[in-house]
Amino acid sequence: MERLVRPDLTPRRVTLFDALVDLFLSRGFAHLTLEDMASRLRCSKSTLYTLADSKEQLVRVATVHFFRRATEDVEARVAAESGARERITAYLSAVGVALGAASDRFMSDLDAFAPAREVYQQNTHIAARRVQELIDEGVAAREFRSVHAGFAADLAATMMVRIQQGGVRAATGLDHAHAYHELAALLTAALSDGTHDATRV
What we know:
Elements: H1 11-27, H2 34-41, H3 45-48, H4 55-79, H5 84-100, H6 104-112, H7 114-140, H8 149-165, H9 167-172, H10 176-192
């Protein structure tokens, strides 16, 4: 496995790494050289090499860092909620907020660069499993209908992959952030609808 982030990073370099991620999110990365990155971050190229061994690895580790940072924020939002409906809404909405920080250029560059795209795909699958867990928790607590809970989780997973692949945007015009907000609203409304007979097909 390739080295991602060196364990001996100083606080200054951790801050630099965060700044690099923010640079990529706002401006993309395909057109940036190492010289461009160093200039914008006001550091030397040798400092960038303390984060990764090449531009390609730097982009990949920055993408990993973005999703790790986003996961911490998302889970903090979920932990602040108690009800199943609120937790799923918080989770998907927070994912949408995290992706909302990414510019169209970043998302386009990410899709065109296989190593970074794979990181996004992996995190999409992880997020889908997390939604399944939240649905199962809601069913166990009798806050959600048990009928179609498995289908709802699979539907969420399918839509999350479709959002990641750009199909939702092509079909509806919704960007990643707004698509996640819509998914949260539809999913929780369907699971929480207590006006229907649970045995009805």
